[in-house]
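Journal club prep — side note

Before the paper discussion, L.F. wants everyone to see what a predicted structure for a comparable chain looks like in token form. Sequence:
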Amino acid sequence: MHRLLFLLALLAVSARADFSDGNIVDSLPEYHAQDASAAVVTEQNLLASERFWPYQVALEESWQPAGRGQPLPPDAPGVLIRVDGSGLARIDFGRDGLYEVPVGRTDLVQRANRIRRGELEKIAPNFLLAIAPRLIDSGSDSLRPFPVGAAVEQQAFLCVFADPDAEGFGALASGLIPLRERRGLLIILFPQGARADARVRERLRSLKWSVPFVYDHLSESYTRTLLADATPPPAVLLQTRDGRVLFQGGWRADAVPDLKSAIAEAFGDQPTPSHYADRGPKP
């Protein structure tokens, strides 16, 4: 597990390098998170200030995680996964572990205000920055990356954690049919079970469910990082471009109305157009 988390941390730290590739940069619109006129970011309004969430954070003082032999040292760097409403930040410290850390033990608020004032650059929303270069387009006739520009269009991401070869996967895909026309929503599959990328692509094409999916060698580490602890797949996680959770839990067919309600509450009825609005499993 530590090796996988360390791999994820290395990938996260190198995300800016990934975006330095000309093709990816050309697909990204200019992003300006700074807004000095916005309210000062505090621990109390962090959820409402997600556009200022930094991609990386650090501990301000030594902190002892439960179950760890040694405390994490001051200035220990990590990748911010998300913030919840209880004053905790989910942070991936690479080989040092993944923890829910009290926001006050980190420099998260300070970095958020630096972004707000324009003193610290934020080149893209956090989840988008982490995931966009690591998706495969299952709608393509060959194994090709999913267009970064198509991911940038989206406001919400429905992460589906499931084994594409498992019994019931077809029913899961069919169960998500009501969301296929939802503008501004991109469904992403995180394949479980160490399935080869070509095999996953063919499985999705056989179902006519042309959703992008995460590379096999990255899927397990992203699953551990994104899914709440003790949530076994199949599961779904609905979140914003910066990683704020709108809905999460084990998959069940009757969750679709809840997902639709969460999207409508967060974004209203007319979010931006979805690249995959007309592609998906047919009834």
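L.F.'s comment for the group: The first strand starts at residue 56 and ends at 58. Keep this in mind when we get to the figures.
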